[in-house]
Design goal:
The complex is a heterotrimer. Chain A is built from eight helices and 19 strands. Chain A has helices at 52-60, 102-112, 117-130, 146-158, 176-193, 204-210, 228-233, 238-243; strands spanning 14-23, 26-36, 41-46, 67-72, 75-76, 88-90, 164-168, 196-201, 213-218, 221-226, 248-257, 262-266, 271-274, 284-289, 306-317, 321-328, 331-338, 350-355, 360-364. Chain A has a six-stranded mixed β-sheet with strand order 6-7-8-3-9-10, sandwiched between helices. In chain A, helix 2 packs parallel to helix 4 (146-158). Chain B has a single domain, classed as MetI-like (MetI-like fold), CATH 1.10.3720.10. By secondary structure, chain B is mainly alpha-helical. Chain C has a single domain (73-295), classed as Orthogonal Bundle (MetI-like fold), CATH 1.10.3720.10. Helices cover 73% and strands 0% of the residues of chain C. In chain C, helix 3 (64-71) crosses helix 4 and helix 5 (109-124) crosses helix 8. The radius of gyration of chain C is 25 Å and the shape is flat. The chains are: A alpha+beta, B mainly alpha, C mainly alpha. At the B-C interface, helix 1, helix 4, helix 5, helix 6 and helix 7 of B face helix 1, helix 2, helix 4, helix 5 and helix 6 of C.
Chain lengths: 365, 264, 299
């Protein structure tokens, strides 16, 4: 186990090669190839049943893969028992030992590694300080709040300085304010320690906030891996586009293709522009535009913008923004305007929707 | 608290039934202080003579000692083997699992007289009749299903992620069991151990056959004292045993409450 | 169809192999010692017993023992009486136990503790102690007769021991907890909102009880009746101590044939019948109730 120690100052590299697990005919994880660089915060994002937790549990050693390999800093760990992998794991339910105090919980991994008791004391104190629970060593687990238990679980998983930290939806049980606080905490600690984190969640906002890169999983496969900006602004599949944020899909056919732009003819008749595409003319496509990219006011400046006409169906006041459901291009288009936007419209009004061609993503059907 | 007529009738009925359940046990207490040796209620006079007889006579003392030592050995053996089997059932894979469960429950399902008679045949051939080891083995077999059912129940209630957490932190499977799982199921284990003890201590039918003449247990001794004519010492013994039962019940009630707190 | 599998999910993969098989089988091996013990010291003896019943006294393989049972009225009477007593005890315990279980489920605080103690204590009291207690109560000079004589209800003591009535009374009390606890457990598990729903839909309390409450408790009733019936069949102590010479039930017959007459083969045949009936009832019920009924902590 001591051979899996961080080569770099904080984190180790995790490499998943062709990792698969099926249960009967149900493929929970299919041929997953992923690399988490040392010190990177990589999130596995997906809905229930996407295979993200099963993947994490294979890395941790609690589920045996059907196929594939798992390497940490180049060493294959897939044959090792969970206690020999030296990875920190934070479970969804914290899994703190109720019959031990906070300090005893945190000391547990150090005891398993036969550390001297003086060293255990120092390192437990350090770990408590890191999660800002220095006053709590003697407390019983049952006396702690959810957020405090969360932090103890984190301290326990980090005290033995593993090269990688695995987290399985750790913030799911916390309320919103606490969750946001803990997100900041986790990010801060990760940056400080430089540790590699593989994080599992279904909450896309959380993934966007925390991650250096996000891997979106669906039905056992990784659909796209990239930085939050790339995954959000340049989704590679309609599924990824609709999973992150809101999206509008317009059906159409590629009419023209040049080096600078492509033109689509929508099913409803309008023509819109999109970035250049490799898809041949005549391909049936879905054009995706995010609601916040669409405005009701004509754009300032010279860039030609796409425009379609429509009627406001519903207007929702969301505090920070106003959301409109507009009947346009033979479908219901969602539009988001900031509250202080130039123009307010009411249900029933006829409006024109404008957006930049650059903000359009194309997907073949 | 205003009760409807129906509720009051039901409660009254329950009270009567409670009396029916409890009276025959409690009635032995006054009988034990009977001054003469005639079976008569209410008893005449007051005397501790029967208690003296119990503590004074060799055969009663030996029978008690046998019962206690055999029951203790059975407790240790049945609890360890039963817990082992429970772990195998809940966390491992056993081929033909349902068959295994059925076979392990046979001692509980088979009528005691049939078990006793069949065991006698084999035990006699093995020279185990009338021996401590023979009694311990026979009673362990009888106690195992009770331990198994109890420990399986408590293992199923436990959050397995705790053991996984221990593994992820570097504990081997054995260490994780002893450091994390065992403390968490301890109350359930104690209950199972008490079951095992009482199963052996109170058992009479199999004991009648296997205890022979050299491993006589307390129930066998009492049986002799009831079979043909009523030996009043039985009243004294009964009172003492009653006290023991009450203690055991209280202990279990207390442990169940303690257990509920830690295995949530 | 895609439900997120917990990290403890196990099973064979698409190719039919189970990656966890070895690890799980190693843990499964923990169950071997217990099985060995039971197999050697009970299952094997039981098998020998069944086998022995198929031998004549002279040693050759035959159905002589069973023929003897089938053709001798006395033995058939014993079997009939055993079944009859077991059935009667079960019915009486059902009639007494069901209302008691309902009362228990409604009880709160001290009253509940008292009722619970009452139903659990027989479990934890030595059977011989309870039997002795019944002897004291039912004896001609005992409690019941003293009261009846004292009140002038009867002029002579009633015979309540050394006969079937004594056996019935004793067994009814001994078996009662086995009937009450499964029913009470089932009532505990019942969703009260179903009763509220019935009331809101217009059912009177009586109809709610008949059409909702009662049916929902039936699994517990079956479990309790099953245990009571099975235990009553093979019961030995009470019939032996409270019954008279004419009240021999099958357990005593087995004992008699083995210890007094030394007719092993006959005793074995009788034992096999008893075992078969017990196992039969148990297995039939498993088909209906499933093994889960055993994991309830009724005891």
């Amino acid at each position: 186990m001591t051979d899996i120690v961080a080569r770099h100052s904080g984190g180790g590299e995790v490499r998943l090669v062709g990792l698969s697990r099926s249960f009967g005919t149900m493929h929970a994880v299919r041929d997953v190839d992923l690399v988490a660089a040392p010190g990177e915060f990589l999130t596995l994002l997906g809905a229930s049943g996407s295979g993200k937790t099963t993947t994490l549990m294979m890395i941790a050693g609690f589920v045996t893969p059907s196929k594939g390999d798992i390497l940490v800093d180049g060493i294959s760990i897939v044959e090792r028992a969970p206690d020999k992998r030296n990875l920190g794991v934070v479970f969804q339910s914290y899994a703190l030992f109720p019959h031990m105090t906070v300090a005893e919980n945190i000391a547990f991994p150090l005891r398993m590694r036969h550390c001297a008791s003086a060293e255990i004391r120092t390192r437990v104190a350090e770990a408590l300080a890191m999660v800002q629970l220095s006053g709590f060593p003697g407390r019983r687990v049952g006396e702690l709040s959810g957020g405090q238990q969360q932090r103890v679980a984190l301290a326990r998983a980090l005290v033995f300085r593993p090269p990688v930290l695995l987290m399985d939806e750790p913030l799911g049980a916390l309320d919103r304010k606490l969750r946001e606080q803990m997100q900041l905490e986790i990010k801060r600690i990760q940056r400080e320690l430089g540790i590699t984190v593989i994080y599992v969640t279904h909450d896309q906002e959380e993934a966007l906030i925390l991650s250096d890169r996000i891997a979106i999983m669906h039905e056992g496969c990784v659909r796209q891996v990239g930085t939050p900006a790339v995954v959000y602004e340049q989704p590679s599949t309609p599924y990824v586009a609709s999973f992150l944020g809101e999206s509008n899909f317009l059906e159409g056919i590629v009419e023209e293709n040049t080096v600078t732009a492509s033109t689509l003819r929508l099913q409803s008749g309008e023509r819109i522009a999109a970035p250049p595409t490799s898809l041949p003319v005549g391909t049936a496509v879905q054009a995706m535009v995010r609601p916040e990219s669409i405005t009701l006011s004509p754009p300032q400046g010279n860039d030609a913008a796409n425009s379609v006409n429509g009627t406001i169906e519903i207007r929702e006041y969301l505090g920070q923004s106003i959301r409109y459901f507009v009947q346009a291009a033979a479908s219901s288009v969602t539009v988001r305007e900031p509250r202080g936007g130039a123009r307010r419209a009411s249900p029933g009004e006829r409006v024109t929707l404008y957006w930049s061609p650059q903000a359009t993503s194309l997907f073949p059907k | 608290m205003r009760l409807s007529r129906g509720e009051a009738a039901l409660a009254g009925f329950a009270g009567l039934v409670s009396l029916f359940l409890v009276l025959p046990s409690l009635i032995v207490v006054p009988m034990s202080f009977n001054a003469d040796n005639l079976l008569r209620f209410p008893p005449h006079g007051f005397s501790l003579g029967w208690y003296e007889a119990y503590f004074g006579r060799d055969d009663w003392r030996l029978a008690t000692w046998n019962s206690v030592t055999i029951a203790l050995a059975v407790t240790v053996l049945a609890t360890t083997m039963g817990t082992s089997a429970a772990l195998a059932l809940v966390r491992g894979r056993i081929p033909l699992r349902n068959l295994y469960i059925f076979l392990m429950l046979t001692p509980m399902i088979a009528p005691p007289i049939v078990s006793a008679v069949s065991m006698y045949g084999v035990f006699a051939r093995l020279g185990l009749v009338g021996t401590y080891p023979g009694m311990v083995l026979a009673h362990t077999v009888l106690a195992l299903p009770f331990v198994l059912v109890n420990v399986v129940a408590v293992l199923q209630r436990m959050d397995w992620r705790l053991e996984q957490a221990a593994r992820s932190l570097g504990a081997s499977a054995a260490r994780a069991f002893f450091e994390v799982t065992l403390p968490m199921i301890r109350p359930g284990l104690v209950v199972a151990a008490i079951f095992a003890f009482i199963t052996s201590f109170d058992e009479v039918v199999v004991a009648l056959y296997i205890s022979g003449s050299s491993a006589i247990t307390l129930p066998v001794q009492m049986w002799s004292g009831l079979r043909f004519e009523i030996n009043p010492v039985v009243a004294a013994v009964s009172t003492l045993l009653l006290g023991l039962s009450v203690l055991a019940l209280l202990a279990i009630g207390f442990l169940r409450r303690a257990g509920a707190g830690s295995t949530v | 169809m895609a439900i997120e599998l917990s990290e403890t999910a196990r099973g064979p993969d698409a190719a039919g192999r189970d990656p966890d098989r070895l690890r799980l089988m190693r843990r499964g091996a923990l169950g071997i010692p217990a099985l060995l013990l039971v197999a050697v010291f009970l299952l094997y003896p039981l098998a020998l017993l069944v086998e022995l019943g198929f031998h004549a006294k002279t040693g050759e393989w035959s159905l002589a023992q069973y023929e003897r049972i089938a053709t001798t009225p006395i033995y058939l009477l014993v079997l009939w009486k055993t079944a009859w007593v077991a059935g009667l005890v079960t019915c009486i315990d059902l009639l007494i136990g069901y209302p008691f279980a309902v009362a228990l489920s409604r009880a709160r605080g001290w009253w509940r503790l008292f009722l619970l103690a009452a139903v659990l204590m027989p479990f934890w009291t030595n059977l011989l102690v309870r039997t002795y207690g019944w002897i004291v109560v039912l004896h001609p000079n005992g409690l019941l007769n003293s009261i009846l004589l004292g009140l002038g209800v009867v002029s002579e003591p009633i015979e309540l021991v050394q006969n079937t009535i004594g056996v019935l009374i004793g067994m009814t009390q001994i078996m009662l907890p086995f009937m009450v606890l499964p029913i009470a457990a089932q009532i505990e598990r019942m969703d009260r909102r179903l009763l509220q729903a019935a009331r809101s839909l217009g059912a009177s309390p009586r109809r709610t009880f008949l059409h909702v409450y009662l049916p929902l408790t039936l699994p517990g009733v079956f479990a309790g009746a099953l245990v009571t019936l099975v235990l009553s069949f093979g019961f030995f102590v009470i019939p032996a101590l409270l019954g008279g010479r004419r009240d021999v039930l099958i357990a005593q017959l087995i004992d008699f044939n083995l210890t007094k007459v030394l007719n092993w083969e006959f005793a074995a045949a009788l034992g096999t019948i008893l075992l078969a009936v017990t196992m039969g009832i148990f297995l039939a019920a498993q088909r209906w109730l499933g093994l889960n009924s055993l994991w309830t902590e009724a005891r």
